[in-house]
Each structure stands twice: as C-alpha cells, then as structure tokens.
Amino acid sequence: MISHRVLAALIGGWASITWGGRIGLLTGDETLVAKARIGVSLLVAVMAVVGLLTRASWRKPAVSVYAIVTSAIWMTSAVSVVGDPASSLAFKGVHLLLAAISIALAAVAWKVVVRRSESEPERPSEAPSPTGR
Questions:
Q1: Which of 78, 101, 121, 128 has a 20 to 30 Å separation from 35 between CA atoms?
Q2: What's the pTM?
Q3: Which of 97, 116, 112 is nearest to 14 (CA)?
Q4: 102 Cβ contact list (under 8 Å, min separation 6)
Q5: Cα(133)–Cα(116) distance, rounded to whole angstroms?
Q6: Distances (CA, A) of 44 to 9, 59, 116
Q7: Is 51 a residue whose pLDDT tops 50?
Q8: 24-33, 79-88, 90-99 — which is least confidently predicted?
Q9: Alpha-carbon span 89 to 43, nearest angstrom
C-alpha cells in the first residue's frame, strides 16, 4: 500500500500541476465561481498534505474533505466542459483527463487513509503493539 508521505507528494504535486498555473487567475477577471473553485481546491489539497505529513489527529477528516471536494469539483467541471459547445475537442479531452486523474487520486487517498483506518481495530494507547513495544 502507498505510504502517507508518497501520497502527500502526489497530492501536492498534482495540485501544483492542475491549479498552480491558475493562481494568477484569482486576481484576474475570472468569475467568482472559478476563483472559489481554484482557491478551495488548493486549500483542501494543502490541508490533506499537511495532515498526511504531520500525523495530525485531523488527518482522516482532512483527507476525507480533500477526496469529496476534489471529486465534486472535477465531476461538475467535466460535465460543464463536455456540455460547452464552444470548447474544442482537445480542450474537452485535456479537462476530462485532468478530471479522471484528480478523481482517481482522491479515491486512492480515501482508500489509503479513510478506509484503512476504518478496517484497523483501535487499540488503547496503553496496550503494547504487536511487536511488544
């Protein structure tokens, strides 16, 4: 299974690729919805990365929010792009590929952090680990 550090690097790198070039648009003529989508996407990615790297108690909620928000943003974006008759086929293809990769990464994050923690039994903090330490 993928480690939390590798997952954090993947999320951070992918957020940089998909949204990093669009940060300048936050101050431009973009609509409020587009600005919110960019800002929220970056914020939830940063929260997930920090949660994954710091062993924070809010790791599971941060990754859950990241997975849900990322999937919702990209699903609505995909529907919007596909339904836009003014968008070229190449534009639609690129955005559908970005959506597919983003949603797949969100699903991996969910599986690694949320599903794994639900399947692991909780041990009291005083109980010895399986190795006896």
A1: 101
A2: 0.81
A3: 97
A4: 14, 18, 70, 71, 74
A5: 22
A6: 14, 12, 20
A7: yes
A8: 24-33
A9: 30
